[in-house]
What we know:
The complex is a heterodimer.
Chain A: E1 5-7, E2 10-13, E3 19-24, E4 31-38, E5 42-50, E6 53-57, E7 64-68, E8 74-78, E9 87-94, E10 107-108, E11 112-116
Parallel strand pairs in A: 2-11
Antiparallel strand pairs in A: 1-3, 3-8, 4-5, 4-9, 5-6, 7-8, 9-10, 9-11
Chain B: E1 4-5, E2 10-14, E3 19-21, E4 24-25, E5 33-39, E6 46-52, E7 59-61, E8 64-69, E9 74-79, E10 88-95, E11 103-105, E12 109-114
Parallel strand pairs in B: 2-12
Antiparallel strand pairs in B: 1-4, 3-9, 5-6, 5-10, 7-8, 8-9, 10-11, 10-12
Amino acid sequence: KAGVTxxxxxxxxxxxxxxxxxxSPISGHRSVSWYQQTPxxxxxxxxxxxxxxxxxxxxxxxRFSGRQFSNSRSEMNVSTLELGDSALYLCASSxxxxxxxxxxxxxxxxxxxxxxx
Amino acid sequence: AQKxxxxxxxxxxxxxxxxxxxxxxxxxxxxxxLFWYKQPPSGELxxxxxxxxxxxxxxxSGRYSWNFQKSTSSFNFTITxxxxxxxxxxxxxxxxxxxxxxxIFGKGxxxxxxx
Lengths: 117, 115
């Protein structure tokens, strides 16, 4: 079956702009998580959505937001981009349901690499 | 406080050597899950193993083995007879399911297998 699909794969923006990244989870997966990966900080949790509701959130400023649609597809948005937002943004889906989301395997996409100039 | 520590930033070994990747975690919970993921150059992380806090049995899967020791809060990963295809970044991760229910990753260990 198709894996997690993230678009776009690469993009370049300038400071102050905004960006929207898209993630299509594996069919049947209702949980979608987003991570930011940078060389200095490693993988940092942004947020997680389950059945269109944000269920968990990491320690990122309000410029980072997301949403999930009824078909489980998810988008994340970063407004007023800063140079430090340059990173690989990874989306992961899982089959987990109910309260215990993260006891299961996460399936990752290949990421969207954002460069902010 | 950092909850998952992978002290080895980068390791290089010659093909066919054994290599162990260290992972030390920190948690106040008695119920938690530990994971290892592999990130090849293509970027997507690939799940390798999950272990819950009540199961300290070591696990072997082919050339891969994992040593979970609660007494030292460690969950180390050994690759036996390494191959060039094992070159990747490896992440250890922790999920405190009754605390905040999100997976926290270590900073990863970049493994180079030299031919």
